[in-house]
């Protein structure tokens, strides 16, 4: 098995590591670096529980090789956790009861974050479309949609307030 | 009476206190547990559905660098520690399951379904463990297979077990057939319905996972696993591994969903601790999604068909029903109970049914073992009777709402013993039906349906009136049903010296917010801030015994155990206060966390002060400490009920179903946290809708599973399910101290029938035969049904 030395930045911390050619990014993050926020649900890009941001783009880390992430900037749901208070997306998922068992939640939050970056005021249809790659077995999606709507509103309000300064 | 105090937490929409760890990614699931020196396990699974196994050659696997060991059934027989036994099916008085039909932990010379474990490989990392599995050579002799239960009981079907030539594991009858046949002879109207119910995969998003370790000096086996029932697992694994139960410690991290699929005692969950004991080092395993699809228990798979007889006024005279369950390759832990007694116990739903005859058979097939999935086989029962009511209304020429109204059990009839002997404790079925019709504006909706039909548009209105047995527990019921252990639940409350509280419960949360709703109960009762209450579940060392979370029971039975423990803590506090303030106990009042002497409110102590005094114990009347444990045993079951309605539009050219509305009117008694209750309804209804329209386990003719990934298996996505409107009704359960009724399973129980009835209703003018429904009603089946194609 060929090994590779790679460098990746995860949530702002630089890591140098050695991985096999076949090591999946999600396993490198979880098993080697201890970032257990992204969860493994299907190993086939279907469920989205392992969604992270790779250089700012939401991707499923179960179908990216660790070597492909060499030199990249990775953000996991854990990046939000280092802040003093919850991010509006995290807050809204909790307030709107947009999670039950929580296994899909890290992926849902990362996908939502990318959506709201792209489209700060999505309608219900756009939200449901954006979340199509993230499965949830507990909530029937209803309160997840509400959580995204609520987060979007909070973030727009904050952006407007900042714009006023 | 103590415990009547309130600080308003019970019934409040408290935001879940456990959420922060989930939204920040810090929640620890089993595969998140850091281990050092752990061996990673991977399982070799049978590639064939039915085969004799002549030889398993593990030598090439063992030679691979990084492989620690590979074990087959034969290796386990020869190992130092005792080989694992088979997984027992629960014993019942009415169905005996012979040990021959028990599911093995590891197959030896014969496999009965694709995916059955044949060997387990242990390696230094998870990739190498899978490489090892790939290098194992198996010499199979393939046998003819059968996965369709109807075909399995034919004379020419391949036989799974020699002693069961027709593959029938059980043949169970209820009721007097002749008497019911007589009712049919007297009938004015007779209608029939059949539901060919597919298998479903419960598919919690977190796969099954286990981490085990063994300490030879103490003989202690510690197991961390994703389960709904830690204490039952401890007991089962003790039996399977022949290990002392008190030397097994089961600890459960966060559980990423269960839906009934993490109740049963599984094979790998015993193999992993067996390997840890044999190797004397930690062993870890998490299933892949395909392993889950192929080997975790499937749900549903119970075909019911039958008839109803009515008099001239549309009153039910009797029901006959015939059932066939698709059991899979062995008889799993609970399936024989779920598909028989626990199915027909609600088959009359909300109706006064004087006579019932049913016969249900269990067919062994070369498929994954069948067992519980949210709603269990109450889903089949309610779907059958609600489809039958819809078909009967057509036959009689009466509106389906009116036919239900005429047959509902009156609100003044409770407690009401049904034809099956189930006692319905409380309810108001008329209120639920009328509320549903009112919210729907039913009459106008029917008019609009007529108008749209004239325009070639097909709107369908489906009603589903349900009952659901929650809070199973009464000893007489468990004994009668042959449930292996009466379903009490344990709850302990400790008031610490500082005044903070830890509460323990024998249930196991897997997403339903116990940490919040239990804390609401305890904090409300004790009159303390909710932040001061810590809830602990899922550790066999913290609480000696428990039953676990299933059957919509946690809040009803576990919550009641905590409520009673809180009352006991208050009583003990009262005696301490009486002693210290030198007043008679009966003069000590308690409210909002404070005790005081009647008529002298300045003579008072807070519960925190009492906790401190109880621990200091310089001057207490009895034992030190402030703690209480309750083993709560319900005397009655809490019957949840309601009416769901689906309004859909079906496009006959494409067979597509579009939701206009979904309404859920539910009587769950007192709701402790309405937000959590609604969340349970939303998720459950999505599963009911999905059963009606999308999900289906498919095997090919050779017993290969076609739907072994989420690419092929139609778990609904965000745009597949509609927004659900919920309406709260409440007739509090009279038996339990919370007045609560379980709601976790009601969504699929009511939802499947509501959607099926709506689709059939929409297609009625197009000649769609609703009397025989083969679920799910995919666009293809709908199109064929409308266009008269087979």
UniProtKB/TrEMBL annotation, chain A:
Q: Which UniProt keywords apply?
A: 2Fe-2S, Iron, Iron-sulfur, Metal-binding, Oxidoreductase
Query: Which CDD domains does the protein's record reference?
Result: fer2
Specify the signal sequence span.
none
Q: InterPro entries in the record, alphabetically?
A: 2Fe-2S-bd (IPR002888), 2Fe-2S-bd_dom_sf (IPR036884), 2Fe-2S_ferredoxin-like_sf (IPR036010), 2Fe-2S_ferredoxin-type (IPR001041), Beta-grasp_dom_sf (IPR012675), Diverse_Oxidoreductases (IPR051452)
Q: Which parts pass through the membrane? A: none
All residue ranges annotated as the 2Fe-2S ferredoxin-type domain in the record: 4-80
Gene3D superfamilies, from UniProt?
Answer: 3.10.20.30, [2Fe-2S]-binding domain (1.10.150.120)
Single GO MF descriptor: oxidoreductase activity
UniProt-recorded name of the protein:
(2Fe-2S)-binding protein
Automatic annotation (TrEMBL), chain B:
* Record's keyword terms, sorted: Molybdenum, Oxidoreductase
Top-level taxon of the source organism: Archaea
Decide whether keyword Oxidoreductase is in the record: yes
Listed Pfam families: Ald_Xan_dh_C, MoCoBD_1, MoCoBD_2
Keyword Ribonucleoprotein listed? The answer is: no
User: Which Gene Ontology MF annotations are present?
Assistant: iron ion binding; oxidoreductase activity
Q: Which SMART domains match?
A: Ald_Xan_dh_C
Database matches in InterPro entries:
Ald_Oxase/Xan_DH_a/b, Ald_Oxase/Xan_DH_a/b_sf, Ald_Oxase/xanthine_DH-like, AldOxase/xan_DH_MoCoBD1, AldOxase/xan_DH_MoCoBD2, AldOxase/xan_DH_Mopterin-bd_sf
Name used for this protein in its record: Xanthine dehydrogenase family protein molybdopterin-binding subunit
